[in-house]
Amino acid sequence: MTVRVPAKVNLQLSVGPVRDDGYHDLVNVFHAVSLFDEVTAEPAGDLRISVDGPDGVPTGPDNLAARAATLLARHIGVEPNVALHIRKDIPVAGGMAGGSADAAAALLACDALWDARLDRGALLELAAQLGSDVPFALLGGTAVGLGRGERLTAVEVTGEFHWVFGYADGGLSTPAVYAECDRLRAAGEEPIAWPLVSDDLMTALKTGDAGALGRALRNDLQPAALSLRPSLGDALAAGCDLGALGSIVSGSGPTCAFLAESAGHAADLTGALTGTGRFAVVRSAHGPVPGATVI
Ligand code: ATP
């Protein structure tokens, strides 16, 4: 059973103050893009994980796909005896929710393998227990996520948008970026945001206006990511100099997302950004695309 699952970029990531439970209230506008991991589930004598792709992905019980299989098995009352093979194309610790994507894919693959036939609501509930970004990887498309990001509402989008993603050499830890965001705010260097969904962003998506979308991109974690990785500032500026309609750090970074006018423009921008030598890898993609899908 093989499931293909997309990466996400955040079109809006507004971060409220820290709550009593340690989490932040978020307004998160997720957008699924055509960079995919694949997770294959096969019957086995115990739970095994293998990974094809970059270093840095755990192959033990800490792998989010393994946690997803274990959670589903417990939920339906079977042993988590499955071999999960992950083919990674989504950058690791890149702010594109690759681990969450693999968890969503493993849920769907094991649901099919074990013939559990859980409905969408039950799968989304298990997904939310695994992490704030996991439900969106099941849903795909474009969606507003409230709460910790897991309370999702689909957003109407006209047409598709063309993107270029610049991957950095090393990842950034999501908790470290949130901690830096809190530190900058406590030091008075960044304002505390009270998150609201951006009307300009919703209009740009509804009308399919790439120029307006480029102007509406917003990520409250960007100052923290730049503080931890100052070279990202020049990388984002390079994209704008080369004609991107908008440049933003994806989620907690360090992947940089650049919006292009068209598929052709994205191809040109991919070449130009590769030529700057600022990124380990530069890839083009389009969005929105569907969420985790059995193939
Ligand atoms: P997000 O955008 O959701 O904050 P991210 O894209 O920055 O996440 P991930 O690639 O999801 O980061 O990985 C973060 C960490 O999670 C990795 O450094 C790794 O140790 C761990 N991890 C666990 N399972 C996986 C997986 N299947 N793929 C990648 N990383 C995983």
Question: Can you give a write-up of this model?
Answer:
The chain contains ten helices and twelve strands. It has helices at 64-76, 98-113, 120-130, 134-139, 174-186, 199-207, 210-216, 222-228, 231-241, 263-276; strands at residues 2-18, 24-43, 48-52, 82-87, 142-146, 151-154, 161-167, 218-219, 246-249, 256-260, 281-287, 293-294. Helix 1 packs parallel to helix 2 (98-113), helix 2 crosses helix 3 and helix 5 (174-186) packs across helix 8 (222-228). The protein has 295 residues and is of the alpha+beta class.
- Radius of gyration, CA atoms, in whole angstroms: 19 Å
| CATH first level of the largest domain | Alpha Beta
| Overall number of structural domains | 2
Uncertain stretches of 5 or more adjacent residues:
none
Bound molecules: adenosine-5'-triphosphate
Query: What is the count of β-strands?
Result: 12
Mean pLDDT metric: 95
Structural class: alpha+beta
Strand-residue fraction? Answer: 25-35%
Question: TL;DR?
Answer:
By secondary structure, the chain is an alpha+beta fold. Helices cover 36% and strands 28% of the residues. Helix 5 crosses helix 8.
Task: Provide the fold topology.
Blueprint: E1 2-18, E2 24-43, E3 48-52, H1 64-76, E4 82-87, H2 98-113, H3 120-130, H4 134-139, E5 142-146, E6 151-154, E7 161-167, H5 174-186, H6 199-207, H7 210-216, E8 218-219, H8 222-228, H9 231-241, E9 246-249, E10 256-260, H10 263-276, E11 281-287, E12 293-294
Parallel strand pairs: 1-8, 3-4
Antiparallel strand pairs: 1-2, 1-12, 2-4, 2-5, 5-6, 7-10, 7-11, 9-10
